[in-house]
Amino acid sequence: MLKKACLLFLFVSIIFSCNNDDDIIPVCDTVTNISSNAITNNSATITWETTSTSATYTLEYGVSGFALGSGTTISESDTGAQLINLQANTTYDVYIQTVCSSSNISLHTDVYSFTTALPNVATEFKPILSEMNLFVGNLENLQITPLAFEYNLNTTLFSDYAHKQRIIALPEGTSMEFDGDGLPIFPDHTVIAKTFYYNTDERDLSLGRTIIETRILIKLNGAWETGDYKWNEEQTDAVLDLAGSTLPITWIDASGSSNSTTYKIPSNTDCFTCHNSNNDIIPIGPKLRSMNFEINGVNQLEQFISNQQLTGLSSSSSVRVLPNWEDTSLPLETRARAYMDINCAHCHIPGGTCADESTLNLAFETSLEESNIVEQSVVIDYRVSFYSEGLSMPFIGTTMRHTEGLNLIQEYMNTL
């Protein structure tokens, strides 16, 4: 009986001892409602809620999937933290612990994830193309950043049968501004890029391609600057090369014929020759009349208007169209004049490089009587009939005759 009484006394003592409020340590609560804001391409602010009024907090973060203990750790006394020096377009994981005391720390929260923004397109010429941020993913895929957009031309310039990808990157919150049928007004810090490449075999695109160069125009303080990036053999990146160079190229065309040329990458001086207008550098291709056509059933200018990439214009119907010189349903003169416009008019036009040496005005809108094409038809026929650097036309930009273009021009000249 005495033994039972002793055991009962011991049990009651333990119960009362455990219920002594002075000896209970409150649980350190885990934070709740984690969120992120002010996310940029290299930083983010993380905030959370807590019931602990005097606690501090430990954050551990890293690229998504990192193991706890291997991330970056910071301590905060407030319910928010700014994470800096992050990688662009990257998903990060964050874990938070509440520190009530050195011996009383909460469990880690569940993982919270966020993704940093895309890097801004560079508005100065970087040493390598990847640093321009015009593309995402593997550079050789030429996947355009969502901060830029592709444009195409209804009738295109001949460049030794090379294919071209054309893109425009406008500063955030800006647009191209309508200024007639020609070039729109581009805001400062606009970047225009054109990448040249050859498919290994036009009959089987799965065999890959060889990317040669990416030419870039940047508008700064109202003036355009030029730069050219030469791609490496590995097709992993391109290096800024202002001096120009040559590169042997071979490819198989759609008919199965093997072709080769020594492709010429232009120097900055060459760029000025073609892009010169009254001694200022201007773009050549992205005139509204050259972009006013349908792609996959959708008018390109209408798409720009809808995307607020082009303002000051309500409908593409008010913009003239530069016809496609390859459209054989069009009259011969229309096709030939369109070809001369895109291939020749940037030099043979008032203010162009050849304005002082030639009376030709080859802009499509110029009437035949004022163009002087008839008066110089024999010279035109001769200068396009062969290739000789510095003598034949075009003066630069090609290393071979353009058979289809030559046939078109000569057929037209014979009618004059």
TrEMBL record:
Q: Give the keywords, sorted.
A: Signal
Query: Which residues are in the Fibronectin type-III domain?
Result: 30-119
Q: Which residues, if any, are the signal sequence?
A: 1-20
| Naturally occurring in which organism (per UniProt) | Winogradskyella damuponensis
Please report the name of this protein according to its UniProt entry.
Answer: Fibronectin type-III domain-containing protein
Q: Which domain of life is it from?
A: Bacteria
